[in-house]
Design brief:
Order of helices and strands: HHHEEE
Helix content: 40-55%
Strand order of the largest sheet: 1-2-3
Structural class: mainly alpha
Bound molecules: zinc ion
Strand content: 5-15%
Length: 113
């Protein structure tokens, strides 16, 4: 979806450039060209701003799906190894729901990864 927006912006920018180059002193064509280039720039600018709003969620997801060896994490109650599905990150806190004994608790200790 983002790629399509960039393609549209690139197309508008190129079209604007063609108008500017092809204007040959015609003010009206020159203005259209400049407006198109500005519009293309604005589209790219706005598209770049949007993903920053959800950056916090993305970072939290990376924390668990990255190079973390989840086999090292064991249930506090029954000592069973916990899988990725049993660990959830909510507002920076790590919540554990053990499938083996049904215990639900917040991971208080500093993770050793
Ligand atoms: Zn357990």
């Amino acid at each position: 979806m983002k790629l399509v927006i960039y393609l549209i912006a690139a197309f508008l920018g190129l079209l604007g450039l063609v108008f500017v180059i092809g204007s040959r002193g015609q003010v009206f064509t020159l203005i259209i060209g400049i407006v198109l280039i500005i519009a293309a720039g604005a589209i790219v600018y706005l598209t770049r701003i949007q993903p920053k709003a959800s950056s916090t969620t993305t970072i939290q997801q990376i924390d668990l799906s990255g190079d973390v060896s989840l086999e090292e994490i064991r249930c506090r109650s029954c000592n069973a190894p916990l899988s990725k599905d049993e660990i959830e990150v909510k507002a920076g806190a790590i919540l554990v729901q053990c499938d083996h004994c049904g215990a639900t608790y917040q991971f208080e200790e500093e993770p050793k990864w």
